Amino acid sequence: MSNVLQISPRLWQLKMGMVNSFLLTTDDGLLLIDAGWPGQAEKIFSAVRESGHTPRDIRHLLLTHGHIDHAGSAAEVQRRTGAQTYAHAIELELITIPAIVYRLLIKPGGTKYEPVTIDHVLQNGELLAIASDIEIIHSPGHCAGQVVLLLRNDGVLIAGDLCSNIMGLSYSVLNEDISLARETLLRVAKYPFDRAVFGHGKPLNNRANQRLKERFSDPKLR
Ligand SMILES: [Zn+2]
Ligand SMILES: [Zn+2]
Fold first, then answer.
1. How far apart are CA 218 and CA 113, in angstroms?
2. What is the whole-number distance in angstroms between the Cα of residue 8 and the centre of ligand 2?
């Protein structure tokens, strides 16, 4: 079964088992969005090859947020490709915890992944220099420093863990603040996009903004 799904002429979904990464062609090589669980770098690279690209052309690595299933292999991907890394300021503590602290305190318990240095701190409303129609939308709730990406020219939202679409649209598991997550979902649903892709689950292929609004308007939904 293929691990790759082409979403638009420049965007591919890479299925890493329980989590998705995304690959985008830009004005400056490839942008990888999220880097799976720890130990998945090779799996990511083989999906990149399957999409018709070369892993060494990954010049940029953006983390939607710092959870272990999205940033777990970021350090290895960064080491093997030399990619510039991007994340929101609020996630930095989780992503970049000093290596010595990681080795001494955390790794034995296995609850933390290898830290990675972040080169570029993302701002809400920022347009990416390497793909100037792509807007960063700060999307707190699931976690405080999550960002999602609006690909204006494609009408696609890369939604991270804003919500999931595994067995239909639902809240992501382990939200820090579910009422803030809902507020953010309804705010993001006002942007213009027809399709949405998620860290967990299948793409939503038409009227995606409208369907997010309909689904999460009910305050009793949990
Ligand atoms: Zn998450
Ligand atoms: Zn996740």
1. 36
2. 22
Q: What is the reported pTM? A: 0.94
CA of 79 to the centre of ligand 2 (A): 23
pLDDT tens for each residue of 82-109: 999 999 999 987 788 765 665 565 544 4
Angstrom CA distances, 43 to 21, 30, 137, stand at 11, 17, 28
- Residue 130 in domain: yes
Is 222 a domain residue? no
Residue 16 Cα to ligand 1 midpoint, Å, equals 14
Question: 163 alpha carbon to ligand 1 midpoint, in Å?
Answer: 9
Q: Using the predicted structure, report yes or no on whether residue 110 has a pLDDT greater than 80.
A: no
Domain range for 76: 4-216
Is position 52 within any domain?
yes
- Torsion angle, CA of 36/40/45/50, rounded to 10 degrees? -80
Domain count for the chain: 1
- CATH number for the domain harbouring residue 207: 3.60.15.10
Structure tokens at 139: 């999307």
Does residue 221 lie in a domain region?
A: no
- Which ligand sits nearest to residue 18's alpha carbon? 2
pLDDT tens figures, 54-70: 999 999 999 999 999 99
Lowest mean pLDDT among 93-102, 116-125, 193-202: 93-102
